[in-house]
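User:
I would dearly like some help making sense of a protein record. Take your time, and here it is.
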Amino acid sequence: MLRLARPDIPEAAITEAVEVLRSGNLAQGEQVARFEAALAEYLDVKHAIAVTSGTAALHLAVLALGIGPGDDVIVPAFTYPATANVVELVGARTVLVDVGLDDFCLDVSHLKKVVTPRVKAIIPVHEFGQSADMDGVMAFAERHGIDVIEDAACALGAEFRGRKVGTIGRLGCFSFHPRKAITTGEGGAVTTDHDELANMVRSLRNHGLDPESPGRMDFIRAGLNYRMTEFQAVLGRHQMTGLHELIEARQLQANLYDELLARIPGLKVPGRFPERRSVHQTYHVILPENIGRADLILWLKDRGIETNLGAHALNCLTYFKSKHRSRAEDYLNATICWRRGLALPIGAHCFDEDIRRIAAELKKNLA
């Protein structure tokens, strides 16, 4: 079976992780600090704070900005539920906006329709490794005095006008889930150039411990345990050394997909933007309207190819429909992406012949 994604963990990482396991020093320490330093250097950001997941990163970012009851947060309607879940869990209200069909990211033209004095933050999602329109997001946020938290869970290494995503807003959030460019099994990171926010995130991830008093244990706020382990950090640090080559390989694979799938009538491939550099965490297409996606997924599985939906239209999920009275027709593009989107295999486990076979099977089915 050609999997949708498969982690590419070097042997040196496995060897060192085993050494850490045998050492007995497993909780957050020197290895986590080394991984954080590697992330910060790669992203050219002042602070990178490793945590237990991308969801934890988002939760800490929302908490660090003091978002809570009475506040609204703008979130794209097409994303993984984690982006909005953290807003709901701190007692704030999620305000959905539709996405574009070319980049699958927040459509900035819709922001003016939903902004109110209650809106405290925007969380643009760099969906599938493609940057959102950060010029539009930042200009709108600055005009209205709104904070920006970048959900870069899928987008380590993606760029907007030469800047790494996750470093443009006040806070950035990354995931190291096994389907991401690098993985620590589960894991994530918060990035920021703001010292005060960094200290708040470090304190909140470690039970509220004061990060500026290393010589004594003083808990200065209620916090959580979102600390990454040492052996996870080893896995992540080793993969950072090959990240550039991994991204280049995915870009070549995406180019080949573009070339082959453009010949299939009615199939929509991801858009390309000169000011953005995608890392193609997922290669996501929109199927023709008359195609049953569930049947196609099973048909491809029978031929040894794993595929799946890409993300979710939050407006179509039970929680948001019941609480916020959201409707499919209010977020047409998000609904199209959810109902007709298909994620195809991409990554180090794929070869050109695999992509050519996938394209040939799709053409056979969709013709």
Q: What stands out?
A: The first strand starts at residue 47 and ends at 51. The chain has 13 helices and 14 strands. Residues 287 and 340 are 5 Å apart (CA to CA).
